[in-house]
From TrEMBL:
Gene Ontology process terms (BP): actin filament severing; actin polymerization or depolymerization; barbed-end actin filament capping
Keyword Cytoplasm: yes
Region spans: Disordered: 635-718
UniProt cross-references to PANTHER family, sorted A to Z: VILLIN, VILLIN-LIKE PROTEIN
Biological source species: Betta splendens
InterPro entries named in the record: ADF-H/Gelsolin-like_dom_sf, Gelsolin-like_dom, Gelsolin-like_dom_sf, Villin/Gelsolin, Villin_headpiece, Villin_headpiece_dom_sf
Highest taxon of source: Eukaryota
Similarity-based family: Belongs to the villin/gelsolin family.
Domain HP: 696-761
Low complexity compositional bias, start-end: 669-682
Name by which UniProt lists this protein: Villin-1
């Protein structure tokens, strides 16, 4: 790999698992969502509360902070195992050092000292896992690269934490790990244009962000992800993987508890974590709407509030009161067809509004078509989503002839109209539809809709059209109706499920005193993996309260959780029945009435997985530690080894080469899983000779290191007159438009012409 600090300096498609040509330090941190990020290879990066993984290529040493949690320890061990198995061909050794008892691992501490130098200053204190921006993964951003109407769009994916299902095989993605590295992921079904441009956009992104030239770009195909990439996502599952994270046994450490009265009312005031899907009130507060015009805020006429066009971006500030104190929610609605400049401007303007209100607003990014329930309530049943176009005054939207709107909702709190393709196949027997043509406005009632839905359909149709509405019952459509939709076609006509969606979504809270004070924290978008063995979890299903008690939860948490659940019911703003049943559930004995609220419940999750202690014993045995010491001595790490690196000298450790003058690109998108470069005796990266390449060893350069470069900017050893021989067969064909064998048959002038056009001359 090529890394910001201490990484391999070039991008060859070649695996060599027997040399020390990698040096990096990974910081593993987090409580609910454990993430890993690369940091400076120095003792100054360490602290007492987290895990640090020293990766030296053929050996990995895991150092556990004295105050780190079991979930971090297990995640780090799994990361080390993943790097060993998937990136080092299973041939790297792993050792574990317990920071609270370093003397118990003298051999591994000698290795760490050889690389990092003597530790001259005390370790930094632990940083809270739940502090804002403290988690190394807190600055991770994911960008979606896709084609839209012939244009390439790069759009930030707002969801946090990142989940694997955000990645679509049809597109490409750019992942920014807080500037330490930038990764490009290519979906297996993405277009050539997307694949080619994703890398260019990533390079442009680094430049726009003014990241240092040592920032690296790592390119990978779907299915060939690096361990670091996967560990930035919550619950990544490889194809064919059946086992989860396993158990996180604890030694039963309990933080000192300050007996502070816990205020359950905080849960009801404005749970920021759930603002995008909770009903903080009935939507009767004050509303202010702006549209982004010329990258600035423009007031929207109140008479058009609720009308959102897919070609625009909007900011909606909602103000309400709790206990005579003003609270704010700032919704950022971004149209599917808005320009990237407008999307960027909307985020920038949201920050300005947030600053104006001293950071008080809860910021909620709204995906077009996925408007949360409270957002619907704000507009009192008059929310209309237009597929494209703009609401800017003085701009006439193109006339599409017929326009079809699907209306869903039974009252002013949950109704919206969404423009759909004006085709018969868009109809659905369970809903109301409005078909608007130049001559007529049809109100179509599906057989499955009820009186309330028809009433709301008529109300929203009055906003869309002042024409008289022609009511059409399903099955009694006039011929003109079908003509406007381009003819009859099959559509969804199944009756809706008999069991309606529950009116109140279940909510999960973690009850813990691990920070030294009893706290209840809501878990958004929960799954079975969020049930923490060391804590008590409260599941509110409205009709019942479940208290799930983890095997390692302490008595104080269990007692406080019961009292807090009673107070939670008593103070709930919806006037909950204080006699709502409270059910205790022990880990491993969950009834179906509990497990039914979790998707894909695994009854063997806690019995089948390995604990941290089991993983540690399996990976870091005496033989592994001994082998690391042998390898260290043979590699002479502390003196002369040439580590391909980012131009950084660890105190007392090896000297790496000077920083490279350009951003390094590492391509994992070949069949190889770990690109590394051989080093010469001085530790400098060398290109393979043309004869080596032609010999079929699979050692090829990334095209970005060859394209449009002056001879002095090329990697050492590259013949500037034969750049094409350093390309893989796939890159060769993509850039030169012909197969390698056919290229060799062309006259010299024709070869040079193709090379000039490709930027290889």
């Amino acid at each position: 790999h090529s890394y910001k600090k201490g990484g391999v300096a070039s991008g060859f498609h070649h695996v060599d698992t027997n040399v020390y040509n990698i040096l990096r330090l990974l910081h593993v941190k987090g409580r609910k969502h454990v993430t890993a990020t690369e940091v400076e290879v120095s003792w100054s990066s360490f602290n007492k509360g987290d895990i640090f993984l020293l990766d030296m290529g053929k050996a990995l040493v895991q150092w556990n902070g004295p105050q780190s949690n079991r979930r971090e320890m297990l995640k780090a061990v799994l990361l080390a195992q993943d790097i060993r198995d998937r990136e080092r061909g299973g041939r790297a050794q792993i050792g574990v050092v317990e920071g609270a008892d370093e003397q118990a691992s003298p051999e591994l501490m000698r290795v760490m000292t050889a690389v990092l130098g003597q530790r001259t200053a005390p370790l930094k204190e632990a940083v809270p896992d739940d502090g804002p921006g403290d988690a190394p993964g807190g600055s991770v951003k994911l960008y979606h690269v896709f084609e839209n109407s012939g244009n390439l769009v790069v759009q930030e994916v707002a969801a946090q934490p990142l989940t694997q299902d955000l990645l679509s095989s049809s597109d490409c993605y750019i992942l920014d790990q807080g500037g330490s590295s930038v990764m490009v992921w290519k979906g297996k079904n993405s277009s050539k244009e997307e694949r080619r441009e994703a890398l260019n956009r990533a390079m442009g992104y680094i430049k726009a962000k003014k990241y240092p030239s040592s920032t690296t770009v790592e390119v990978m195909n779907e299915g060939g992800e690096s361990a670091m990439f996967k560990h930035l996502f919550k619950s990544w599952r490889d194809k064919g993987q059946t086992q989860g994270l396993g158990t996180t046994y604890s030694a039963g450490k309990i933080a000192k508890v300050d007996q502070v009265k816990f205020d359950v009312m905080e849960l009801h005031a404005r749970p920021e974590l759930a603002a995008q899907q909770r009903m903080v009130d009935d939507g009767s507060g004050d509303v202010k709407v702006w549209r982004i015009e010329k990258l600035e805020l423009a007031d929207v006429k109140p008479s058009t509030y609720g009308q959102f066009y897919g070609g625009d971006c909007y900011l909606v500030l909602y103000t309400y009161q709790i206990s005579n104190q003003q609270q704010y929610i700032l919704y950022m609605w971004q149209g599917r067809h808005a320009t990237s400049d407008e999307i960027t401007a909307s985020a920038y303007q949201a920050v300005n509004i947030d600053n104006k209100y001293n950071g008080a607003p809860v910021q909620v990014r709204v995906v077009m078509g996925k408007e949360p329930r409270h957002f619907l309530a704000i507009f009192k049943g008059k929310l209309i989503i237009f597929e494209g176009g703009t609401g800017r005054p003085g701009v006439t939207n193109p006339d599409n002839g017929a326009r079809l709107f699907q209306v869903r909702g039974t009252n002013e709190l949950n109704t919206k109209a969404t423009e759909v393709l004006a085709r018969a196949s868009s109809l659905n027997s369970n809903d109301v539809f409005l078909l608007k043509t130049d001559q007529t406005c049809y109100l179509w009632y599906g057989k499955g809709c009820n009186g309330d839905e028809r009433l709301m359909g008529r109300a929203v149709s009055d906003v869309l059209s002042k024409q008289d509405k022609q009511v059409v019952m399903e099955g009694q459509e006039p011929a003109e109706f079908w003509v406007a939709l381009g003819g009859k076609a099959p559509y969804a006509s199944d009756k809706r499920l008999q069991r309606e969606e529950p009116p109140h979504s279940p909510r999960l809270f973690e009850c813990s005193n691990q920070t030294g004070q009893f706290r209840m924290t809501e878990v958004d978008d929960f799954a079975q993996s969020d049930l923490d063995e060391e804590d008590v979890m409260l599941l509110d299903t409205w009709e019942e309260i479940f208290l799930w008690v983890g095997n390692l939860a302490n008595e104080y948490e269990t007692k406080e959780a019961l009292q807090s659940s009673q107070e939670y019911l008593r103070t709930h703003p919806a006037g909950r029945d204080p006699d709502t049943p409270i059910t205790f559930v022990k880990q491993g004995y969950e009834p179906p009435t509990f497990t039914g609220w979790f998707s894909a419940w695994d009854p063997h999750k806690w019995s089948g997985g390995n604990s941290y202690e089991e993983m540690k014993a399996k990976l870091s045995d005496a033989a592994s530690v001994s082998q690391i010491t042998v390898d260290l001595n043979s590699a002479n790490l502390s003196n002369s080894t040439g580590m391909s690196g980012g131009g950084y000298r660890a105190p007392g450790g090896p000297v790496s080469p000077s920083p490279l003058s350009k951003v390094q690109v590492v391509d994992l998108s070949s069949n190889s899983s770990t690109p590394t470069s051989p080093s010469n005796k001085k530790g400098q990266s060398m290109a393979p000779s043309p004869s080596t390449v032609d010999g079929g060893t699979g050692m090829y350069l990334n095209p970005q290191l060859l394209l449009n470069k002056s001879p002095s900017d090329l990697p050492q050893g590259v013949d500037p007159t034969k750049r094409e021989v350093y390309l893989s067969d796939l890159d060769f064909e993509n850039l030169l438009g012909t197969k390698r064998a056919d290229f060799q048959r062309l006259p010299k002038w024709r070869q040079n012409d193709l090379k000039k056009k490709a930027g290889l001359f």
